Amino acid sequence: MSGSQHGFFCFLCGKHCSLIAHVQDGRVVKVTPDTASGILSDICPDAKGPVTIPATYNHPDRLKYPLRRIGAKGEGKWERISWDEALGVIAEKMTACKESLGPESVAMVLGEPKGLEFAFGQRLATTFGTPNVITPGCYCGVQTGAANLYTFGSMMVNADDVTDPTGAVMIWGNNPRHIGGTFNGMMPTELDRRLARGCKLIVVDPGKIDYAARADLWIKPKPGLDGVLALGLIKVIIEEALYDKAFVTRWTVGFDRLKAHVSTFTLGDVARETWVEETQIVEAARMFALNRPSILGSGNALEGTVAALQTCRAISILNGLTGSVGVPGGLVIKDQNELYRPGRFYFPKGFPRQKEGSIARDFILAVGSAYVPTQTLVNTILSGEPYPIKAALFFVTNPLSTYPDAHATYEALMKLDFMVVADIFHTPTTQLADIVLPAALPGEHATIAYWPAWVGHVKCDPKFIDPPGEAWADMKMINELGKRLGLGEYFWNDVDEVLDFMLSPAGITYKQFMTQRIIYPKKYYLKGNEDRFFQTPSGKMEIYSERMEQLGISPLPYLEEMMRAKQVASESEEYPLIFTNRKETGFMLSGYRADPKMRKRYPEAVVEIHPETARRAGLSEGDMVNIENRKGRITQKVKFNHELDPRVVMPAFGWWYPEAKEDLYEWRKSNINVLVDGSPEERSTGAVQLRGIPCKIYK
Ligand SMILES: Nc1nc2c(c(=O)[nH]1)N[C@H]1C(S)=C(S)[C@@H](COP(=O)(O)OP(=O)(O)OC[C@H]3O[C@@H](n4cnc5c(=O)[nH]c(N)nc54)[C@H](O)[C@@H]3O)O[C@H]1N2
Ligand SMILES: Nc1nc2c(c(=O)[nH]1)N[C@H]1C(S)=C(S)[C@@H](COP(=O)(O)OP(=O)(O)OC[C@H]3O[C@@H](n4cnc5c(=O)[nH]c(N)nc54)[C@H](O)[C@@H]3O)O[C@H]1N2
Ligand code: SF4
Ligand SMILES: [Mo]
After folding, report:
1. Cis geometry, peptide bond prior to residue 66 (ω within 30 degrees of 0)
2. Does ligand 3 lie within 6 Å of residue 180's CB atom?
3. What is the pTM of this model?
4. pLDDT in tens, 588-613
């Protein structure tokens, strides 16, 4: 038998562990961690890369051919068609929409990217003329990114120094070992190295992640009100004068206004709203501020509330007050200029961002980041306001399982006149499509991975096997569609030509990149870069942001802003419990539920409940429980967790059942987004309340 080995990067979560694919006779027989190259391979305890990737490459249910729906939406009846026919139908429908209603009546809907599919999706939308590109940015990444941008002028990430000391680490609403959002590039290996040197650890999480067990302090806040807690810590740091005075004097603007604001409330107010005792708030503030440099890694839990932007602003300010920005062992800037700028790829010369025409024009930071919040798409399809959206193309996304207000999403997808979905498997969303396109995974085609962009790594994912059947890379689908739409001058003869093009700033070819495998970013400290470190108008860290004020956004993270979350997230007599969620440790979002090994480990949706809360509801472990609020009702299986606050329940996210073919994969049975509202929204980014939602439970 002929065998070969190929280095590549895990495409399941943002940590992108370095892996080796073992190929025999054209099949991947095994995937193992890469222990030899020295590139980080921080495999999660579930070993999703080694387990799920070979299972997915070889899965019999992979989509293999373009399909056209022949039954009713959701009926599951399909006929195989050729790529030529599929592209012809799609181009014809898009052109018809453009001619009758304008290009903006076609939406481009994108999920978390793995390689260049996001870039291609944006480029096609731009050149076709629609500003309506929908992404999960409204509750993923944008709030952290924008807070960093307005506070520091650019994204600040973990310095990951091997030798420099970090005195304290705070992990806040982030699960670095199992999940790996890598929002500030904090990898478990780097954390563990610091902890081994005696660095203090604070965890702020309603659930006991592995790091909570090792923490010097574990805080279990009320879900959804982290912004209030962050202001409480800031208050202690300012009023006990624990901040870095030299840094604050030389490098910040607006400190006095923040000081004045935090004097308007008491620590008792903070404790009451967040369920965190005053003594813990004080202890956390002291531990974080007195063990400098200290770094705070906040995760996705803070981005899904109606106060998300200001919560993330408070987190950025907290980081900065300790002077741990731009120093070894703290947070630094990582700049990657060896990849063609993605923004320029999205908007080729002569195509500026069309903010005014976007259905998201009221969300000023959303249009600034060129995305439409997911629920804005749903509302627009349903209402026809401000104008109709009739057709949509979906790449790498499963909205029926992941968008808030799942019933509204269902209605909207049912109402679309024309719907194209590209995926690797059938999902609840593909079942509502008119055309389904089979996608090839990294490894089945050559690509470049650069996401999450702020970590600055550019990685090579070469092709080492053929895709199943006639599956194509998303970027190829979009490239060929672009040509069909008469936009050939913005696309490539052969899509693989784009790989050399993207690497042109690095001065290497894709072939050379295959040996090099990774391009690391350049790291900047404050020292030596004083004149350009903070790319803000003042050239300093902006505690008070006039730029935000000019945009009509609160220039300081005021307590009143944080309390907007409370209006949505308050328990009541009818709904006395608060639910929140984390991502599933065994799966990526709603995907990969068809991997048999992982499904054996995690066969169904499980809700964690405190035993006392369960007892009061007459529930035993293993029972099926109804979780209900005014939006709807779902069912999950009870698991006791005595570490949870008895007022909090933690249902599983992203569940549908690929084996339940008859009933649209039981898309609503366990889907927590049935219980999530699509409004109100954070005013500038469109974030909705995903964490901290009232509910009740019963048998
Ligand atoms: N295995 C796996 N990995 C993934 C993903 C996946 O689905 N599965 N998804 C990827 C994506 S798209 C993202 S955005 C990242 C997200 O990665 P993370 O940033 O780690 O986000 P979550 O897992 O959503 O939540 C992190 C932690 O927040 C806690 N939490 C929940 N609600 C609250 C709250 O109100 N306050 C506080 N302080 N904590 C809270 C949860 O208990 C959890 O431990 O992970 C990526 N990686
Ligand atoms: N209640 C609640 N809702 C949430 C969250 C939450 O924590 N709670 N998290 C939010 C977050 S952070 C995010 S990022 C969103 C994510 O929401 P989505 O963007 O919908 O993400 P996924 O569920 O991963 O859907 C990705 C789909 O792409 C398919 N896929 C995988 N690889 C490829 C490929 O190479 N090509 C193509 N075409 N398809 C592929 C997978 O099979 C899967 O069906 O969900 C959000 N929704
Ligand atoms: S899913 Fe696991 S193996 Fe894959 S990148 Fe994430 S942590 Fe690494
Ligand atoms: Mo996300």
Report:
1. no
2. yes
3. 0.98
4. 999 999 999 999 999 999 999 999 99
